[in-house]
Amino acid sequence: MGEQLKVGDQVPNFKLLASNGEQVELSDYAGKKLVIYFYPRDMTPGCTTESCDFRDFNGQFGQNNAEVIGISPDDLASHEQFVGKHELPFLLLSDTEHTVSELFGVWKLRSWNGEEFMGIERSTFLIDEQGKLAKEWRSVSVDGHVQEVLEAVKNS
């Protein structure tokens, strides 16, 4: 892949399998704002908190012509379990080959407990109705993040 996406760039149409078992592509959301949050792993504490925050504010995103999707490297079985357990009202996309994560520049060398590994750097992106990258939040800290994204959606 070439350069990572920057604000103002047209986001290339991508396609991934979603937690509903269907292929979802970016173009499905044309004419709406799309919030994509990349997170490291289903069922982990930070990812659960973030996903439940997006769930709790989902209605307000909807009122502002925005849809939310989550993307992680987890497989569909894991996503289905995560969606079911926390009653997530939006789709989770499975980026097992991390092609979309690389496109957005969030597939990075991480370290945890002294171990280094490749994984997702928690990040959120707002794509406008025309499919352009409108705003990005990289290296996200979960606390208060969803409210911040919602404010950006309301003001875009």
Which secondary-structure class do the elements indicate? alpha+beta
- Spell out the helices and strands N to C: EEEHHEHEHEEEEH
| Radius of gyration from the alpha-carbon trace, in angstroms | 14 Å
Distance between the termini: 29 Å
- Number of helices in the DSSP assignment: 5
Secondary-structure topology with pairs:
Blueprint: E1 15-18, E2 23-25, E3 33-38, H1 45-56, H2 58-63, E4 66-72, H3 76-86, E5 91-94, H4 99-103, E6 107-112, E7 115-120, E8 123-127, E9 133-137, H5 145-154
Parallel strand pairs: 3-4, 4-5
Antiparallel strand pairs: 1-2, 1-5, 3-8, 6-7, 8-9
Account of the 3D structure:
The chain has 156 residues and is of the alpha+beta class. 28% of the residues lie in helices and 29% in strands. The chain has 5 helices and 9 strands, in the order βββααβαβαββββα. It has helices spanning 45-56, 58-63, 76-86, 99-103, 145-154; strands at residues 15-18, 23-25, 33-38, 66-72, 91-94, 107-112, 115-120, 123-127, 133-137. The strands form 2 sheets. Strands 2-1-5-4-3-8-9 form a 7-stranded mixed β-sheet. Strands 6-7 form a two-stranded antiparallel ribbon. A hairpin with a 2-residue loop joins strand 6 (107-112) and strand 7. The protein is globular.
